[in-house]
Design brief:
Oligomer: homodimer
Helix content of chain A: 40-55%
Largest sheet of chain A: 4 strands, antiparallel
Largest interface: A-B, 53 and 53 residues
Number of helices of chain A: 8
Strand order of the largest sheet of chain A: 1-2-8-4
Strand content of chain A: 15-25%
Number of strands of chain A: 11
Structural class of chain A: alpha+beta
Order of helices and strands of chain A: EHHEEEEEEEHHHEHHEEH
Distance between the termini of chain A: 34 Å
Radius of gyration of chain A: 18 Å
Chain lengths: 244, 244
Amino acid sequence: MMQANHPALSRFLDRLLLRSKLNEEEQAAILGLRGQACNYPTHHDIVGQGETVDQVCLVADGMAAQFDQMRDGRRQITAFFFVGEMCDLQSIPSPTAGWGITSLTPTTVLHIAHADLLDLAVRYPAIGMAFWRDTIVDASILAKWASNIGRKDARAGMAHLFCEFGVRMENLGLGERVCFRLLATQEQLGEALGVTPVHVNRSLKALRQDYISFENRTVRIHDWGAFTAVAEFDPTYLLLKRQG
Amino acid sequence: MMQANHPALSRFLDRLLLRSKLNEEEQAAILGLRGQACNYPTHHDIVGQGETVDQVCLVADGMAAQFDQMRDGRRQITAFFFVGEMCDLQSIPSPTAGWGITSLTPTTVLHIAHADLLDLAVRYPAIGMAFWRDTIVDASILAKWASNIGRKDARAGMAHLFCEFGVRMENLGLGERVCFRLLATQEQLGEALGVTPVHVNRSLKALRQDYISFENRTVRIHDWGAFTAVAEFDPTYLLLKRQG
DNA sequence: CGTCGGTTTGACACCGGTCAAGTGACGTGG
DNA sequence: CCACGTCACTTGACCGGTGTCAAACCGACG
């Protein structure tokens, strides 16, 4: 069923407002977008790799990820998307992407037509700029991610990922930076960090000894300062200062 | 000296036209941009990490890279920029970035003011969309890069990087995909792939035995089909189909 | 001819991959 | 209510790719 004023739109707007300034009319225009809500089970490929799309995916519940798949089936996750985040805003100017989108947990997605979003972006340049800026945030996160994979050992990379999750979830209203629910499996974390699930387990064990607890799918960071030091975490790259 | 009609602008326009459709007026507007040409020696940080800028960098000669630096000084390169490519178009909507820009060889950069580019993007929505699309290409390359680092051994990652360089240079008119000049040092390649320079050397040695020659800073790929198979290279992610 | 940045090679150590076994939580069906 | 299957987590033993350190080589350039 197509419906406007879906609660996920309000979360999406909040995320945009973290970085972009939009007036009342522009905010109302975004809240008035119409979308189709779909439920997907865990491990469902919502968008296949290389597929061309005419709509975007807004996470309304659960958790999704962008991935690149090798011929042997191994995957590299290149982005996580939490509730209120848009998986493929970049598909508006570029509807064919080299990656796929998959659900990491049972997930509800609100699909919104490119045509409607493009219309908004043209009618309200501030919205167009906010959309562009939103895709840049994802690119910035990905750049930091690359150095996580390439230049840190698994323990530090994992710590950095947890710092990022904490800050992002706090900004999305999904928890505190030092305490948040994380439904990803160790295999999925490994796919993000470029290590095997076995080694994710070893790294988590090491982190639990000194810095965090991770029980009932809830991460608790005991000492934020010490933990960010291990991770070499500097939130600049999340672009949380309002720019527009 | 500020000057319009710099030859690098023509190359930049060609790159935009690979993926975006622009009419004569729009093309003329881009060619008429005014910029300041600056020369930088090798290993000069043109934009420091975390710096806020009010202009962009267009590579007019040489080669530049985006990087993220760890506290101990090690760097991860997250993008290479060849002649005609824009290093930080994304700084228009988001002037503070988490990364830096450095020269890999003696490099000439044309600096163009944000204000002028923003003016174009607002006056001509097709140009705004072309700019957005251009930043998405960089993000797409980076996503593929991440799986290179995380999910391939050094030899396959290097092969993929060379395939990408070949296709990009061919499209920029800087060589053929199977034969192109590459001025990067082995240390710089290692910073891109997340391995040490010593191991870059070992990987290159292995590739030279079977697939390529690399002398006088010129890469020759003997059998494109076999090489892309080793690299698992599929050019979809370079978004070379014209979209707008 | 000497210096310097970049390349090449070898010896050795270690992080993370691989393989295998076992545990525990949970949902389903008898 | 319990037996069972499934999925994720955990742990240990061993191995290989990559890092580290060190030395030599090489071409460009002054």
